[in-house]
Backbone:
């Protein structure tokens, strides 16, 4: 990675098998602009100063005001000692505090470390110590503040900045009263290690600038991966990684006519920005094109439907469970959702039935993409307009190349069309894992590609199909079995709303698939034998489920995608208990 302002592939147009599937106007070998990430907000404030950047609880914040608040926060952070090499944690939901703090930290010269409100205490402690976080920003909410206040005494954390959720709304007194009535507010204790968020903004906007010599080397965000086992690792995302990812996203929309029009879009931002998908696709992309971000602190189907209908939302990036919830909500029958023109699903495989139903409801193509924390998270996109292939997550995004590594030997690349582990290369790919050179080296191939852990293949048109994760792949009686294949088949059952398939111990086969199912509202339950009969013509005998649980809810991650980690842990506890007995 270099400090140049644009990165361009040396490949000639059409030299990649997927470039022929790009719609007119979109170029695989386009120049990918890279810059200090804070420049995204500064450029937008210069181009659209009076346009609304944020809509939050009855308050609209212009681009000029948002940039000024971020500059004030930068001055406040610098007064707390933040500068190059200093890491600041953000333990925040989707509120203006996040945007102000994020850009304030970067303007101050520091690095952002994202924290999830759903992290367990052990994980929070690990992240603080591992990332060397000195300053943390949070809110006065019962869900957030007590957890961070405790870490002042148990970790290296030096300063806790506490914001008032209501202060950024259009009706502070009413919001504060509502939070108090619901027992959602925390009692903030007096402590000289704590500062109010407002105190950051009282310093004035004249902060000390720290020019970045090399955006390809300077760390902007330390983003911890949500691995299925062990403690998470910190992906080092540079200013070039993140700004390149934004440029790649924008290039996919430069169709004829363009899918997104700078200065004219309104994005429903319900994904939490501490997740890389929302950070890049909602926040950074939205600000780069001068969109208005309509912030929701959490996903609620009724509220989302209401805002899409009344505020004429044009773009809605989400995860499959959100689109499922909207499709199954009774208010969709009377709501007008036809203002939507760019909807993207990521974070987890999108069931074909959901994709088709959503497009029929809204008239907007629900495009699936693939990416990961380590890729900032761009990877693939479904061309809009363009060929849409059921089961595919699309083609490589501009400036990104893929190869497929043999699952058997882990060294040689397989031919196009054959299944293998996806390996990716591009300006968006992380610098490496924080303080883990061995882990970084382990995922790099000899020719400079990064191993993703996802198994899939590419067809003749350059479309990629994700079969499964290498770590999720089951070995059943000597056969490779992919849970996603089973899940796709179960999703075709008319009573199924959500499903997760994991491998459970089998004395004879080694592993066997077990399905955990949430039914649609009002749907009748069915037995395992009935499910097997339904799947008989959809799955091979080696893929057939051997066990099933129907549950009112399935575990999800902080971003709302289905999580298998808890299911595996539950099955392990059951097996351990059975062995002990």
Residues:
């Amino acid at each position: 990675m270099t400090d140049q302002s644009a990165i361009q592939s040396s490949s000639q147009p059409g030299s990649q098998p997927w470039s022929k599937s790009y719609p007119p106007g979109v170029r695989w070998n386009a120049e990918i602009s890279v810059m200090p990430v804070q420049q995204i907000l500064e450029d937008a404030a210069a181009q659209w100063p009076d346009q609304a950047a944020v809509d939050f609880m009855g308050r609209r914040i212009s681009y000029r005001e948002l940039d000024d608040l971020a500059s004030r926060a930068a001055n406040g952070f610098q007064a707390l000692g933040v500068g190059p090499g200093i890491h600041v944690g953000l333990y925040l939901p989707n509120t203006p505090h996040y945007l102000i703090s994020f850009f304030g930290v970067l303007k101050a010269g520091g690095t952002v470390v994202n924290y999830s409100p759903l992290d367990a205490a052990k994980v929070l402690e690990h992240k603080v110590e591992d990332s060397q976080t000195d300053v943390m920003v949070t809110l006065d909410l019962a869900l957030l503040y007590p957890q961070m206040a405790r870490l002042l005494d148990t970790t290296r954390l030096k300063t806790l900045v506490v914001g008032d959720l209501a202060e950024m709304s259009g009706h502070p007194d009413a919001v504060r009263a509502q939070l108090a009535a619901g027992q959602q507010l925390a009692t903030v204790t007096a402590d000289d290690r704590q500062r109010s968020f407002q105190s950051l903004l009282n310093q004035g906007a004249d902060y000390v600038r720290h020019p970045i010599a090399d955006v390809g080397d300077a760390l902007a965000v330390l983003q911890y991966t949500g691995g299925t086992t062990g403690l998470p690792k910190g992906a080092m995302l540079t200013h070039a990684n993140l700004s390149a990812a934004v440029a790649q996203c924008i290039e996919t929309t430069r169709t004829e006519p363009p899918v997104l029009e700078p200065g004219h879009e309104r994005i429903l931002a319900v994904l939490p920005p501490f997740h890389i998908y929302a950070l890049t696709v909602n926040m950074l992309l939205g600000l780069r094109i001068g969109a208005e971000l309509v912030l929701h602190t959490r996903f609620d189907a009724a509220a989302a439907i209401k805002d899409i209908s009344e505020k004429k939302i044009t773009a809605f990036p989400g995860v499959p469970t959100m689109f499922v919830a909207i499709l199954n909500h009774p208010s969709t029958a009377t709501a007008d959702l036809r203002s939507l023109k760019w909807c993207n699903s990521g974070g987890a495989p999108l069931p074909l039935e959901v994709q088709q139903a959503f497009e029929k409801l809204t008239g907007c193509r629900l495009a699936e993409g693939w990416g990961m924390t380590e890729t900032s998270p761009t990877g693939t996109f479904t061309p809009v307009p363009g060929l849409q292939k059921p089961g595919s997550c699309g083609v490589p995004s501009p400036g990104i190349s893929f190869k497929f590594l043999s699952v058997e030997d882990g060294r040689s690349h397989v031919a196009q069309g054959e299944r293998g582990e996806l390996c990716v290369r591009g300006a968006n790919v992380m610098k490496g894992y924080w303080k883990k050179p061995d882990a970084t080296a382990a995922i790099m191939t000899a020719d400079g590609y990064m191993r993703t852990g996802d198994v899939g293949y590419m067809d003749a048109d350059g479309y990629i199909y994700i079969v499964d994760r290498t770590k999720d792949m089951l070995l059943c009686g000597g056969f490779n079995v992919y849970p996603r294949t089973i899940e796709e088949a179960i999703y075709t059952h008319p009573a199924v709303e959500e499903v997760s398939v994991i491998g459970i111990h089998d004395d004879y086969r080694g592993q066997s698939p077990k399905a955990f199912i949430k039914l649609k509202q009002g749907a009748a339950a069915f037995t395992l034998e009935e499910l097997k009969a339904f799947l008989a013509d959809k799955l091979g005998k080696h893929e057939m489920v051997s066990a099933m649980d129907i549950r009112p809810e399935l575990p999800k991650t902080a971003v709302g995608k289905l999580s298998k980690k808890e299911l595996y842990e539950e099955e392990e506890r059951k097996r351990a208990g059975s062995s002990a007995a």
Remarks:
- The first strand starts at residue 6 and ends at 7.
- The chain has 16 helices and 28 strands.
